[in-house]
């Protein structure tokens, strides 16, 4: 019973995951109009720029940079 009450207040683990991923999906969808207008070559160049951005960061910051470019990467592809 207590578990059910707590689940209703803070949500289940799946509810929290969905909430987290929903934010990412909204960010990706917001980028869609920008990339939708681009040609294949422009998209390829944009993706190459993202890869350069990740590679140019120091090793200890690469994970953070990857998380930053994730929405753009999904929007491009």
Automatic annotation (TrEMBL):
<feature type="coiled-coil region">
    <location>
        <begin position="40"/>
        <end position="67"/>
    </location>
</feature>
<feature type="domain" description="SecA family profile">
    <location>
        <begin position="3"/>
        <end position="77"/>
    </location>
</feature>
<dbReference type="GO" id="GO:0016020">
    <property type="term" value="C:membrane"/>
</dbReference>
<dbReference type="InterPro" id="IPR011115">
    <property type="entry name" value="SecA_DEAD"/>
</dbReference>
<keyword id="KW-0175">Coiled coil</keyword>
<dbReference type="Pfam" id="PF07517">
    <property type="entry name" value="SecA_DEAD"/>
</dbReference>
<dbReference type="InterPro" id="IPR014018">
    <property type="entry name" value="SecA_motor_DEAD"/>
</dbReference>
<dbReference type="InterPro" id="IPR027417">
    <property type="entry name" value="P-loop_NTPase"/>
</dbReference>
<dbReference type="GO" id="GO:0017038">
    <property type="term" value="P:protein import"/>
</dbReference>
<protein>
    <submittedName>
        <fullName>Prepilin peptidase</fullName>
    </submittedName>
</protein>
<dbReference type="GO" id="GO:0005524">
    <property type="term" value="F:ATP binding"/>
</dbReference>
